[in-house]
Amino acid sequence: MSVAKPFSEAQRMLRICAICNYCNGFCPVFEVNVHHPPTAATLAHLAHLCHGCRNCFYACQYAPPHVFAVNLPRALAELRHQVYLDRVWPPAGRWLLDYPFAALLLALTSGWLLVLLAILVGTAFDLGAPMQTGFYRVLPWGLMSLIGALPLAWSGLALAIQWGRHWRSIRPPQARGLMRAWWRTLPAILSLSHLSGGGVGCNDRDAGFSQARRRLHQALFAGLAFCLAATLTAALYHHALGLSAPYPVLSLPVFFGTAGGVLVCAATLGFSWLGLTGDPEPRAPRASHLDLAFAALLLIVAASGLALLLGRASAWMPGLLAIHLSSVWALFALLPYSKFLHAGYRALALLQESLTEHETRGD
Amino acid sequence: MRRQCTDIDVLVIGGGAAALAAAIEARRIGCSVLLAERAPCHLRGGNTRHARNLRLAHLAPTPFSPGAYPPATFWSELQRATQNTADPLLGQRLVEGSLAIADWLQGAGVPLQPIAGHRLPESQRTVFLLGGGKTLVQRLYAHAKHLGIEIRYETEVTDPLLTGGRLLEVCCRKAEYKQLRPRAVIACCGGAQANRAWLARHWGEAADGFINRGSPWVTGEFLAALLEQGAQAVGDPRGAYLVAVDGRSPADDGGIVTRIRGIPEGIVVDQEGRRREDEGGDTASTRYALWGRRLADWPRQIGYLLLDARGLRAAPPALYPPISAATLGELAIQLGIDPEALRLTLDAYHAAIRPPRAPGDDWQALGLLPPKTRRAYPLVEPPFHAYPLRPGITFTAQGLAVGPDTRVRLANGGVVENLFAAGMIMAPNLIPQGYLSGLALTIGLVFGRIAGSEAARYVRC
């Protein structure tokens, strides 16, 4: 597929939408589209303003097999993927985005090798000796932290560059009151208000309205927040209280970690079920692959974490720890080349809308 | 287990709003219902798929429309639009029945668009469907299925047999003939706008120049067969609701987006390069139908909207890109118009233009025939653009005469006791001429419900 095709297809469909306007109650994409018929610059913004609720696909009198063949959710999903590719840093990241399952395999394998290497190094130089307890017997604390921190630092940089590039291309010319705009946008971001479609729910699997995707999103978000809380409380225990892992079952890190792990497992399985059983027509295959690969990666991280919790007193512990750590490495390293990208792009789209709306009202 | 389709209480013919309302109403009363839709599943719903809003009376503000629209106001507007040709008894049932439609739709799971979003043209008269007519179709089919209505697609019903004031049997074509003897039948299969032969019979060669804006399955054969069997006709066989659409639109199903909206921004000429009407005379949404009707009488049913660069900027967006050229002469050649004739038309038009004299005045071109009474700007800024225009047919205006209970009347007096009609097939009782926006869907839903309950009552007695 040529680079220009996602843009020209979306432009062709949005032109029809701007005349028809029947969907203007569903989402802000149509409202923006009416006021500014799409140019290449606004298309990249509109693509991320779309939350893929698919209301407009099932409502469309011009949906395939009509000769106008309007399938906006698919066209905008294609376009989002194209925007990811256009803004990726470094350029080699395109490959990871276009072959997400190969990227997943590569990241897991490299993580596995790295963890093994770290264990060998730790054992050879007896670095674990000062802390003879639990996990750190297998892999010393310092090396373990590095396996997490290094890819995370890299990913932070890559994400900042990509999201920064996008913001520079979409921000309104005189963007004032950015902080206040963030505050206005935050409730919409956190409540995922657009995932209720036009107020009736999304068309997650078929022509029927549903709240499934929104609930799964909330569950995933809560799960990841619990996992973060587990890490932070564990760090507190380790550094401030001088308590070394593994922590007892009735401790904050284990509670948060368990809750987070279960939520992430449930949410990623739910997303995959929607993706595999739902109507494929309004989806873009390459965007769906990116979704599925990311769900699979999160599932591996969460499931291996739960397995480690269950098996931490057994002889399986070193193997389980290595699997969990390599999956965490893979997740952190792949953040800027995975579906995780959408979080920033969506937030920026909402921020842009909030700034534009505010300026219009201020006039 | 699949019901034997030979043993059914109510057969509903058609698949749009009227058919669905009739089927749902009859099923709710407890009848077994078979709904036979001619289109395949993905194109079900007739012209309801292209609908956007419906005209509903209401006595107080609702989340979907502000103010009030009393039934009496609705009725007087209907009388005015049809020049007092609407059937008063049916009109009464229409405007009063419309009071309950918003609740009925929501009860069946059809979302309406709240006015709180401020994304709609403010209207006390019409309520907008969230997502348009296709969402209504999807929701009502889901509801019908849930209620246990048997739905058959790609199923055409033919050969009605009317004897002794009863519809004795029909044929149900799906793969092979199947004779059906339902206890009651509700015909909701619309007019005949997609039927080329029907149009040619009443319009002659002009029919070749028409574009069908809606479903290609609304061909009126069942209507014609009933009329042949002695049902009473109502309305005007040559009547049709025509709208000016882009001449390059698909032959069927182009819907709302093929309308050409920029006529007041330019001039419209025929194939000979002559102006025939005042392009600034009507700038409201009624202009679409005015121009559609006019084009039907023009040579080859074609006109061209000509715009200069200014006009194109001012015109609302259009489906297809215009035909463009650097000069008007070159544009004329592309359109197959004699450049000299077009030059004469433009010279006369330009000579007649009077710029505004006081603030609030408009540009006008008076003193020529026809004048342009509003937005008469000169066509001087290159490049120049043209949109070809053709009449787009929306519905025909001949149907079945029905009583207030939607029972089909017979030409020689009396009614067919087990045959009912709802929707555009009986709309000519109410709109033998003229139209009001949102009326088609209201007629479909109100009389669909009435027909469904009357048919059920007949079957149950």
UniProtKB/TrEMBL annotation, chain A:
Entry keywords, A to Z: Membrane, Transmembrane, Transmembrane helix
Entry superkingdom: Bacteria
This protein's record includes keyword Transmembrane: yes
Transmembrane segments: 101-121, 141-161, 219-240, 252-276, 288-310, 316-337
InterPro entries: Citrate_utilization_prot_B, NarG-like_sf
Name recorded for this polypeptide: Tricarballylate utilization 4Fe-4S protein TcuB
Higher taxonomy: Bacteria, Pseudomonadati, Pseudomonadota, Gammaproteobacteria, Chromatiales
From TrEMBL, chain B:
Top-rank lineage group of the source organism: Bacteria
Keyword Ligase recorded: no
InterPro entries: CobZ, FAD-dep_OxRdtase_2_FAD-bd, FAD-oxidoreductase_2, FAD/NAD-bd_sf, Succ_DH/fumarate_Rdtase_cat_sf
UniProt key word Transport: no
Keywords: FAD, Flavoprotein, Oxidoreductase
A Pfam family annotated for this UniProt entry: FAD_binding_2
Span of domain FAD-dependent oxidoreductase 2 FAD-binding: 9-426
GO-annotated molecular function: oxidoreductase activity
UniProt cofactor(s): FAD
PANTHER family: FAD-DEPENDENT OXIDOREDUCTASE 2 FAD BINDING DOMAIN-CONTAINING PROTEIN, FUMARATE REDUCTASE
NCBIfam families reported for this sequence: CobZ_N-term (TIGR02485), PRK08274.1 (NF006130)
The protein's name in its UniProt record: FAD-dependent tricarballylate dehydrogenase TcuA
Gene name of the record: tcuA
